[in-house]
Amino acid sequence: MTVRLRPVEEDDLPFLHRLTSDPDSTGEFQWYGFRNPHHMRARWQENGMLSDDGGILIIANGDERVGFLSFGKQVANRASYYWEMGLIVAPEHRGQGHGTEAQRLLARYLFDHSTANRIEASTEVANVAEQRALEKAGFTREGVIRGSGFRAGEWHDGVRYSMIRADLGGRS
């Protein structure tokens, strides 16, 4: 397995739309309803889905797309910020370690290319597979966030994870 991250290209747009708008592809914990089919294209045309405040990167295994990561800058206070990240792996690639490795790579990238000291990721309490992936990627479980996400007509509890520079060891 050779997981790498790369910027979104125009021919990735149907793949991204599938992973955010097709209930069979989003997965149980990411299905929030149908989306405008032109939303991704408009965003890509605006800035290639990358800016100083965040973006989307494709998760690739060799030349094959396996999913995507999103990340965004969040203000912590007047003097600092942190990154928040999430991902969706295509159903045919789940359970193979791609998400774990992609999260590890993105954390390293964000720490190498910004002054942020913290990265956060959250998932639903019932999403045990993602919790394991985050822990394998080096994230620390911080706690349950009650009633934090609305999906499928109900409020769901979430679990917050974080990584700080010191967690990487060696380089910081």
UniProtKB/TrEMBL annotation:
Q: State the PROSITE patterns in the record.
A: GNAT
The answer on whether this UniProt entry bears the keyword Acyltransferase reads: yes
Q: What Pfam families does the annotation carry?
A: Acetyltransf_3
What range(s) does the N-acetyltransferase domain occupy? Answer: 3-166
Q: What is this protein called?
A: RimJ/RimL family protein N-acetyltransferase
Q: Which family does it belong to?
A: Belongs to the acetyltransferase family. RimJ subfamily.
Please provide the record's keywords in A-Z order.
Acyltransferase, Transferase
- Matches recorded under InterPro entries: Acyl_CoA_acyltransferase, GNAT_dom, N-acetyltransferase
Tell me if Transferase is a UniProt keyword of this record.
Answer: yes
GO MF terms here are: acyltransferase activity, transferring groups other than amino-acyl groups
